[in-house]
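Hypothesis: this fold can be encoded by more than one sequence.
Test: take the structure tokens below, design a sequence, compare later.
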């Protein structure tokens, strides 16, 4: 049996330390933390909506509800990204096996498609929010986003058809 030199021992320890698994665990943890903070921000928007509705100020309640929904959807995107990174890089096949969302993730492409669908939904709500908030002054920039959403949806459809 060949003994390793001290340099080789240090190199092997560093190699184990810099595996993608540990980096993915750190990234997943911080993404989860950001998702929780985004949920807290959504709760804040929702609380402001409740105060507007029960304070007999009907002005702005609709846009405040859509803002809170948009914030919750953005938090969902972040949490899906965190869970997907954890399952693909840190966990194994049995990680999240009870979850309807993460149980079907087997590779990075599955995570990408799941995120793509969630981001399309979030963009749709964000686009609707833009039309509700600035309904008096519609600009041509607001027309670009619906076409972008349509193109992204068509591209996702082509990718899904290519799988089957």
């Amino acid at each position: 049996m060949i003994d390793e030199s001290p340099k080789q021992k240090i190199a092997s320890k560093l190699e184990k330390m810099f595996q993608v698994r540990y980096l993915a665990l750190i990234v997943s943890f911080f993404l989860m933390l950001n998702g929780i903070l985004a949920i807290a921000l959504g709760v804040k928007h929702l609380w402001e909506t409740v105060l507007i509705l029960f304070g007999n100020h009907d002005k702005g309640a609709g846009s405040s509800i859509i803002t809170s929904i948009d914030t919750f959807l953005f938090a969902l995107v972040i949490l899906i990204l965190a869970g997907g990174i954890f399952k693909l890089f840190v966990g194994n096949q049995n990680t999240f096996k009870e979850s309807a969302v993460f149980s079907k993730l087997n590779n990075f492409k599955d995570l990408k498609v799941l995120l793509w669908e969630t981001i399309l939904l979030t963009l749709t709500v964000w686009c609707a929010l833009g039309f509700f908030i600035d309904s008096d002054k519609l600009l041509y920039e607001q027309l670009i986003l619906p076409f972008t959403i349509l193109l992204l949806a068509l591209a996702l459809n082509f990718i899904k058809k290519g799988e089957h």
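The chain has a mean pLDDT of 81. The helical segments are 6-17, 20-54, 61-90, 108-133, 141-163.
Hypothesis status: open.
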